[in-house]
Design the sequence.
């Protein structure tokens, strides 16, 4: 009889009646996914806020010359992409229970992240010290080139890339912790840290074109 | 007993039929609204017109969900996006990994090629709006590749994808409501 009742109610899924993993993943991995979705919304709000300021401004500075600025940030992008690949290899090694290799691949990932951070901080210092870019005002040189340009360029640039940099730093620390204690960690732990790292990479895939490639200086003064 | 369940089944079939018919009617109505807007809106590429079209199509899509789910449940429509082995029963410890080094290298290569195309666009100086469109499109492709293969989402259950992705996309689309105001602000400047 119970089988009949079950057949008559196709909408009651037995996955959801308890005792199983309805998503077929553990609760901690689901937690990381939910965090990633909420963090993705934070970055979307920032990027859309930036777009809002940009469309409502009369002019927007385009200070990044193709060489060296864009090439420089392209190298940063390649660092992140490569580190994402090494992270996949770490998760793959961990799935085979090869913890030594997993630790090595995580080390390579951290190296990619640290290179990204170093290049990014170098670029920030270049903009702050050599140009005099501030969060709420433009350098006089830029104002002369782009009259009536919005002074909020610095605010959007530092806020978005700064928050992303903070995520990369957190990711490197997180991965370092996982690598140090990898003997006590399960495969799921490695996989969850991988999810976070790929998300950081994914965010940069939007930050790089929106911030850098849409502000290319087509006629830099020196040329 | 069995006749009672039989009649219940019949009733549910009838209910399904009515529900699907109503949903299809609404969906068609919203598509007709969108199409009539294209025909009679005058300037189609205005904020109002695009917003109206988007909302109409979104509502049509929402009303199509129930008939599509019904079709999927009754085997009329196969899930095109489901990975192999989607119906494997839950194991006590859900750990599984898919993908080979070759596949991941191919994905990495694809991501690198797309990045190089983006940078190349910056080099050949494409007009800003066209550039924005292409860049956002390419970035979405890259994000989808990272999500599907690096973040393993292609090999997870579809229920996880349905839980995470549509909510994210709808929330991001809701943020677009600020853009009309951005353009309005630009028009309000007095010193231009």
Sequence:
């Amino acid at each position: 009889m119970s089988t009949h009742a079950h057949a008559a109610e196709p909408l009651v899924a037995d996955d959801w009646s308890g005792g199983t993993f309805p998503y077929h993943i553990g609760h901690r991995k689901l937690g990381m996914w939910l965090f990633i979705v909420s963090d993705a919304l934070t970055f979307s709000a920032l990027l859309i806020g930036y777009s809002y300021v940009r469309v409502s401004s009369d002019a927007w500075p385009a200070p990044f010359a193709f060489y060296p600025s864009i090439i420089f940030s392209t190298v940063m992008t390649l660092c992140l992409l490569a580190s994402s690949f090494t992270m996949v290899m770490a998760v793959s090694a961990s799935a085979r229970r090869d913890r030594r290799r997993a630790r090595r691949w995580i080390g390579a990932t951290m190296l990619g992240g640290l290179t990204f951070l170093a290049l990014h901080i170098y670029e920030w210092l270049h903009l702050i010290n050599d140009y005099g870019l501030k969060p709420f005002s433009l350098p006089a040189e830029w104002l002369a080139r782009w009259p009536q340009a919005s002074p909020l360029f610095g605010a959007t640039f530092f806020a978005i890339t700064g928050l992303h940099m903070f995520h990369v730093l957190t990711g490197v620390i997180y991965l370092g912790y996982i690598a140090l204690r990898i003997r006590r960690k399960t495969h799921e732990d490695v996989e969850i840290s991988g999810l976070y790292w790929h998300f950081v990479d994914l965010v940069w895939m939007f930050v790089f074109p929106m911030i850098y490639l849409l502000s290319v200086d087509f006629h830099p003064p020196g040329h | 007993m069995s006749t009672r369940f039989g009649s219940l089944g019949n009733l549910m079939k009838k209910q399904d039929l009515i529900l699907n018919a109503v949903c299809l009617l609404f969906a068609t109505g919203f598509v007709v609204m969108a199409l009539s807007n294209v025909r009679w809106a005058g300037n189609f590429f205005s904020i109002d017109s695009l917003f109206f079209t988007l909302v109409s199509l979104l509502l049509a899509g929402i009303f199509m969900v129930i008939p599509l789910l019904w079709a999927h449940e009754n085997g009329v429509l196969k899930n095109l996006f489901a990975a192999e082995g989607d119906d494997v029963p839950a194991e006590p410890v859900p750990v599984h990994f898919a993908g080979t080094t070759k596949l991941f290298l191919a994905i990495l290569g694809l991501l690198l090629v797309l990045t190089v195309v983006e940078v190349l666009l910056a080099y050949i100086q494409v007009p800003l709006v066209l550039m924005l469109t292409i860049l956002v499109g390419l970035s979405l492709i890259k994000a989808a590749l990272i999500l599907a293969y690096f973040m393993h989402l292609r090999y997870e259950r579809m229920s996880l994808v349905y839980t995470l992705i549509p909510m994210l996309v709808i929330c991001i689309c809701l943020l677009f409501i600020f853009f009309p105001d951005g353009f309005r602000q630009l028009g309000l400047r007095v010193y231009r």
